[in-house]
Amino acid sequence: MSLVVEGLSVEISGRQIVRNVSFQVADGERVGLIGSSGSGKSMITKAILGLLPEQATVNGSIRLFGEELVGIGEEKMADLRGSYMGAIFQNPSDSLNPVLTVAQQVSLPLRLHYRLSKGQRQQRVESMLDEVGLDGHVAGKYPSQLSGGQQQRVAIATALVTSPKVIIADEPTTALDAITQRSIIDLLTCLVDRSGASLLFVTHDFAVLSRVCQRSYVIDHGDVIEGGNTQVLLQQPQESVTKELVKAARTLTLHVSNHGQ
Amino acid sequence: MWSTVEGRFALSILLVWVFMAVLSLVWTPQPLWATDGQQVWQKPSHNHWLGTDGTGADVFSWLMAGSATNLLICLLTVACAAALGILLIAATVSRSALVANTSIVLVDALISIPTVLIALILAVPLGASVVVIVLACGLGYGLNLARVARPQALLAARSDYVIAAQVSGASAGRILVSHILPNIMPVVAVQLSLSAGSSVLAESGLTYLGVGVSSGVPSWGHSLATSVKLINVYPLTALWPGLLVTLVVLSLNLFGDSIGDAIDPQSNSALREAA
């Protein structure tokens, strides 16, 4: 198993944000976490990445390839991040440093985790940019000179440049238009499958989830209320929250279809 | 920076200042201590380009020699202010709430102490010297830098790109140097250039009060302090150092604005085009 979360609870300033959450991500598997805004799904990813605020209390277990992450020191966590784990965030324009060029951003994990010559780094960056469908000339540009879709491709390249074993994508398409959303999703799934990595995909949109993940968990008020095969969840939702999420996805799709006619 | 009129003006004046300061170490038009009781309050002439003061010494030579002292004070003050300011910014954006909150309270409390008061306190054990000006101004301007840059530093520290850098495995030190400081550099550059200008003004003021540059060391403040008492007798000797201080302070402020624009890829279209 790439990632095993057992009985995870997160409390911040006396408020329970995540309650006894358990799920697993197998090697090479694409697993989704879905829930409405404020359900606690992003807090789960922060707990996995060790990015919770100082005042947060974490209980339970998070194991990455058998190594316990809860209570691990910051230095050791920094070694795991970027090399074993990569992450893609919701808003690419915010997650890219505005004063660094694309090449500088993509090469950062390489500089931190591998002893490569400048030429080798440059070669790897160019090859990674090519993999995400960006021209080499983009390497010298600043994020403000790129479109939203291009920015998210750069973020994907940064997350995948060290070939991490687990990739966490926290609503990576929410800030993008529908066409770009689709191309980014296809690109991400293709690259993840090609690299053999596992993917934990966080979203509030069942339509996106059904395209990406084989298995999914529904989160509500910090708790896993339902889980299983994504297609089964979509067709036979059991819990009222899941039904609402499925209904919302279907209504939006239907609306688009009717509008098209 | 050279592309704007303000940038060209500021850079030209500052280059002349540095050139004069360096040149004064090996040459001045007249020897500094060559005074002549028969030649006091002379108008500008071939021998004395800006005239002479009440002791008959050459005003231009003294201003030229003073430029080296002022440049030294300016550079040391900026270095002290930058070191203290960046240290406090690092504490402010620390992940430890205790360190961050302590630094914020400390800055807010100490910033209320005027620079002049700090200089007066320091002058008691140290006496009137360049060190007093550098320490007093460095402390005051460093606190000011930390206070002014704080909101931007906190915004940068809580931004997604810093989280993304953390996810890449960057350490706290690397995040400060490579991600937070470059993003607040326009504010820091402008603030430090203002500090540089203020240090020139402070040198004049503190020397006039008797806690700045010690007597006998050439400086613009010293030239102003000695001539301003006799401004009614001969206004020109007070005019030259006053004009020089004004010009340099203005240039440092314009330099700060220009450098702030020049290093910010979001505001500098030329930088973006070059990329």
Automatic annotation (TrEMBL), chain A:
GO terms for cellular component: plasma membrane. Pfam families: ABC_tran. Gene3D superfamilies: P-loop containing nucleotide triphosphate hydrolases (3.40.50.300). It is found in: Cell membrane. GO terms for molecular function: ATP binding; ATP hydrolysis activity. Residues 3-246 form the ABC transporter domain. Belongs to the ABC transporter superfamily. PROSITE patterns: ABC_TRANSPORTER_1, ABC_TRANSPORTER_2. It is a peripheral membrane protein. Its main location: membrane. Keywords: ATP-binding, Cell inner membrane, Cell membrane, Membrane, Nucleotide-binding, Translocase, Transport. The keyword Metal-binding does not apply. The keyword Cell membrane applies. This is Diguanylate cyclase.
From TrEMBL, chain B:
It comes from the Bacteria. Belongs to the binding-protein-dependent transport system permease family. Keywords: Cell membrane, Membrane, Transmembrane, Transmembrane helix, Transport. Its main location: membrane. PROSITE patterns: ABC_TM1 (PS50928). It comes from Bombiscardovia coagulans. The chain crosses the membrane at residues 9-27, 70-93, 105-124, 130-149, 233-255. This is ABC transporter permease. InterPro entries: BP-dependent_transpt_permease, MetI-like, MetI-like_sf.
